[in-house]
Amino acid sequence: MSILEIVGQVVIVLGGLVFLSAALGVIRFPDPYTRTSAVGTAGGIGIVLVTVGCLLVHPSVSDTIKVIAIVVLQLATSAVGSIAIARSAFITHTPMYGPAFTDLEWEEAGEHVADEWGAGIEPGGDSSEGRPD
User: Fold this and answer.
1) In what helix (H) or strand (E) does residue 120 lie, and over which residues does it extend?
2) C-alpha–C-alpha distance, residues 18 and 125, integer Å
3) Tell me: the pLDDT tens digits for 53-106?
4) Residue 124: phi, psi to the nearest 5?
5) How far apart are CA 10 and CA 62, in angstroms?
6) ∠59-74-1 over CA atoms, to 5°?
7) What is the pLDDT of residues 24-51, one digit of tens each?
8) Distance between CA 72 and CA 82 in Å, rounded?
9) What is the DSSP letter of 96?
10) 29 by DSSP, 3-state: which?
11) Fewer CB under 10 Å: which end of the chain, C or N?
């Protein structure tokens, strides 16, 4: 085995692990928007890693051209597909998983706010006060 083949096999395994993380994101993430983000990003990176790894295992000029075409088309269509899926979820009024609490809302509250452990924190104060170690 040459060094190029070993590197190619490692890159293929890394691509498989990226695909596995995308699958876990589809299972674990709460709404279609975050699921689409996980699949679009990890799918794009995963296919690039797998195809480049295959090229490193069996390098040739014709395969190099094919891999370049695969990478360009995958990255272009993955983004468009992810946007289309997220847009269709938005159009059908699919709810997001809870609104995020931002620092701006914290400052606008202007009152004593309890953090997730129940300890009181004044707006603009240190958020580590009252938390258990």
Assistant:
1) strand 120-121
2) 39
3) 999 999 999 999 999 999 999 888 888 888 898 899 889 988 877 666 566 655
4) 85, -5
5) 22
6) 25
7) 988 988 888 888 888 888 888 999 999 9
8) 16
9) P
10) coil
11) C
What is the Cα Rg of the chain in Å? 22
User: What is the DSSP code string of the chain?
Assistant: --HHHHHHHHHHHHHHHHHHHHHHHHHH-SSHHHHHHHHHHHHHHHHHHHHHHHHHHS--HHHHHHHHHHHHHHHHHHHHHHHHHHHHHHHTTPPPSS----HHHHHHH-S-EE-TTS-EE-TTS-TTTT---
Quickly count: other Cβ atoms within 10 Å of residue 55's Cβ.
20
Strand partners, 113: 121
Residues 112 and 129: their CA atoms lie apart, in Å, by 13
3-class secondary-structure state, position 49: helix
| Residue 113 CB neighbours (<10 A) | 14
Which positions ≥6 away from 1 have C-beta within 8 Å? none
Q: Do the Cβ atoms of 106 and 113 come closer than 8 Å?
A: yes
